[in-house]
Predict the structure.
Amino acid sequence: MTGPATAANARDEHPRVEVSGVAVSVDHYIGGRRVASAGTFEDRSPLDWGWKLADVSRGDAVDASAAVGAAVDAAPGWAALGPSGRGGLLRRLADLIDDAVPELAKVECADMAMLEESLRLRVLSRGARNFRAYADLAEAHEERVWTSGGTRNRVVRMPAGPTVVITPWNAPFMLSTWKTAPALAAGNPVVLKPAEWSPLSCSLLADLADAAGLPPGVLNVVQGIGEEVGAALVSDPRVRRVSFTGSPETGRVIASAAAANLVPFTGELGGKGPFIVFADADLDAAAAKAAAMYDDAGQVCLAGTRLLVEAPVRDELVSRFYAHVDRHVLGDSRDPATTVSPLIHPEHLARVAGFVDRARARGDRVLRGGRVWRDGGLWYEPTLVEPAGNDSEIVQREVFGPVLTLQTFAGEDEAVELANSTDYGLSALVWTRSEARAERVGRAVRAGTVWVNTFLVRDLTAPFGGIGISGIGREGGDYALDFCSDLKTLQILEGSTDREESDDG
């Protein structure tokens, strides 16, 4: 067996399980040590629900308190390193992530069934980019400096303190780094709680952080059930920031717990993105990208799942769309030929199927798919539904599976009206050859990110987040670093100090 951090493995006396040839700890990582719980929860692979991966330590309030305590103890030393000292360690961690990508891909593929080739070639390297990007941004930060009222003024960033990060089961490693990287770069120790349906790659992140030399308590990983250990973490009064990605329902519960302690909270809570295709668009490119919304079995919050097509090109767009969907291959996510993976869990498969079954019952037309692909498996066919009306549940609620809806519009105003007709507002896609229309519609659609003639192009310095029930706050770039910091205005009376001897730089 191998593991991505041999230095940590050599010191670790706790047992590990082998997942696709990679040694993975099933215990928490608290204060630089592996810690077991008396209870466990079962982790199975979506690739074959009979494949039991591990019995994972099931954290409780005691484990949560210990992890927050370790972060509190680590906070002064981590803050004292400054952006440069922290940046060196985070870049070392990024290098180790790059080296560990093949092993991380094997484990994450087994644990949540994302395509192994996609993980290896695209997704996991983003984890290393996240740490490098935030290390660079923290070091390059220039304080705002000005004079007023006879004083010299500076806005100073201070580390906020222990930060709880709760991440979802889709793309767990990358999304964990997306949230932990700015917190660590800002000087905040982190307690990371991964989703119980796919916890194993975050356990490997703890090994990598240890091997990179992050001091004990700077990054802690606590596994378990959200209602148990997650609830204890977000309600701990010693926690100073909470960052969450998941459902609006859970987001409301976490936000309430954070509010009780007056703790700033940021949440990315899913989407129901419109995919708007105008008659002047490159229809084949639009159709190909629409078919790509089935990638990762549609378990992507940013996906454009509501196809809104200008009426004159509806039939041509659908025909081209079907031709691209026909090229999809449902199968084992370890096989490079596979393009559509299984869903994460039997409960989630039942949820996705339930949406389509209710759509049929209320009179929505299932134009394509709409069935479980293979008995005993977790695959669901790529599905297209034409709703009876815009108030259909399948239009208004996030399915988070390989299910798209199809609606037509008569003109630009109706397209915008339909696009803005749900409670969500995370992302949108617009396809048109008109630069003027791209600008008008891009500004009119209410979404945190609008892509025109492209998708999933991410600049890590840009703000990211949702409108409406898609979330609160913004991640990305300096927006994330400001969230992770307490801002202080330092004012010094002009002429009252000797600048040459002062230490205000």
